[in-house]
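pasting Phosphodiesterase for the record, 766 residues
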Amino acid sequence: APVTDVQFGPMRLHRDQLQVLLVFAEEDEQSKGFCWACDKAGFGWNITRSPQAALECFLEKHHDIIIIDHRHSRFFDAEALCRSIRTTKASENTVIICVVQRHCDREESSILPLISAGFTRRYVENSSRMACYNELIQLEFGQVQAQFKLRACNSLFTALEKSQEAIEITSEDHVIQYVNPAFETMMGYQIGELVEKELTEVPINEKKADFLDTINSCIKIGKEWQGMYYAKKKNGDSIQQNVKILPVIGQGGKIRHYVSISRLCNDNNKVEKTCECIQAESQTDPQTCRHKDMRKGSLDVRSTTSRGSDGISQRRRSSMARVHSMTIEAPITKVINIINAAQESSPLPVAEALDRALEILRTTELYSPQLGTKDEDPHTSDLVGGLMTDGLRRLSGNEYILSAKQTHQVAGSLSSPISLSDIPPRITQAMENEEQWDFDIFELEAATHKRPLVYLGLKIFARFGICEFLNCSESTLRSWLQVIEANYHSSNSYHNSTHSADVLHATAYFLSKERVKQTLDPIDEVAALIAATVHDVDHPGRTNSFLCNAGSELAILYNDTAVLESHHAALAFQLTTRDGKCNIFKNMERNEYRTLRQVIIDMVLATEMTKHFEHVNKFVNSINKPLAALEENGNNGDGESIKTVLRSPENRILIKRMLIKCADISNPCRPREQCIEWAGRISEEYFAQTDEERRQGLPVVMPVFDRNTCSIPKSQLSFIDYFIIDMFDAWDAFADLPNLMEHLNNNIKYWKGLDGRNLRVLRPPP
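structre below
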């Protein structure tokens, strides 16, 4: 059998005899012509009469060329067969030809449907043997040879991936297009944080300007540069590298890429500090080296754009770009991506079946949270350990008794609440701008003597018509708010009724955003406001990990699982329903009450941090990305497709969970002074927990929160980087919150400024 060698840059590729599969339902002159042409060209060939036989034959032989008869639809659906073949891995580099009828009296038809089905090109019927032969020869030296080279690229990229040297490939404009795992390991970045970034955006190199000019003047004229320079890792450490930069000549004889090869300089690998230019030798054409990189970056919605874009429209595009770049690596995400890819080239029945499978995957509890930290920062490690785990098991007799015999405040034991119409002027003034994001909750806290929840609750609930929806009186609502507030611990520096009022305010603000209003029903708004009000009721000022380690009665009651969140939800309904004077649900119809109760419980449980990544992951994949795709395709109105995404019951659950999660930890997105105050309060609560753990001999869950050594700026930056930025990028892309994102950026700069000066306190010295 004829064998051909193919030159691919410096590689010499050995190619076996080409194999051709002919799919013709009936023998005719056209099929005979191709059989003759295959024999003359020295190609091996098979012929089949049905789609099933064709698929089986292809899976056995893996033909290089498939020619499918599309002239007679009564025999089989040629496009469906092509789509079926394209779903197989073996067809990735196969050339598929469509034989179509010749119509002399008709206008030329579009080839796009054939391309969409997976055909490489079409062949207008011509049974001339030489015409068939010429077609095969053109394919051999055109598409088939190109696909053969592409197959060889897999071996090249395997070599790159396994190379011990750090390799970086950039475009002619110095935009990073690829880095290998050795580069990721050396520099501390992940590929998703670098790809599509300009080199100037990534603070990797510490070369001086004149040194950079020397390198650029060398490589821009097509010469290699080799020498040593210092580079900066992601964590800020400097390393010395021996680097070779090679320009790659491509189309038009111009430089199209630069390849940088680096290795660390250590005691066993010293090189002199010299640089030299070497004339570039013949290079592989980069256009033939396409490779689909299957490695994904971490969840980093900043990976394609930098922060702080000018203008609202640019900022919105930036948010959408960050949403598209989110590649949260739960296994379920990989499964969904594989199914989506398979759908594109599947027959209609298969595509519909895959749609149903996707629907199931998106609505069941299959997403697992990511628990790994983004780096080795001890502040991040301690925050993850303290907020996302249920503590360290210990076999000591130490027990922390929480709420075991505690009596909770009830309506009868409280003084008569004040009416909304009788609120003192100072409090009224403090609540004047409660509809704005910059509303100052601490001013209201001072005006109400640490009872902001009753007053803010009365005003917000009145604005949303909660009494009318629940069919309860204002006096019942006032009693309920007072009972709930009385069961928040004013002794807690952070988890007190001011935090509850702050979360209620954020929830109301989010509910007023246009996209959210389009999505949620009145019962959802009522549930969200109630859930925000009660979400931390009776919080002891200690984390779930602490309670589990201490063997508290609550931890035992709730099996060390979502201990506090389960307690908040259960106690809220106990306090509400045990006394008719404050039972805001007493006049509701049974089924409506059960629905409302279910939503409230779900939202309160969503504030538990162990499922943080699960909730964000689902929101991005089921809401952000579908909406972004629709908007980019020009469906930016109130179309049915957008409404379907927004209004499905499953997606409304995800939106409500995301809403209360963002409201609960929105402190870094508040104006600076509020952000600083909240940072001080949560730090003090964590300091107190560390003190108590040491007093009781319990495991110290967050050792970094030692009041004598803790850097508050570092702890804030770690919390923001790990939990806040990705979540609020996703929420901003959905709800459009430019003011929050501006505050977030400003607060990040503030904490970085303090950290850069090695200050561990909330504010710089006078």
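The two ends are 87 Å apart (CA to CA).
The chain has three domains: 5-159, 163-264, 385-389+417-756.
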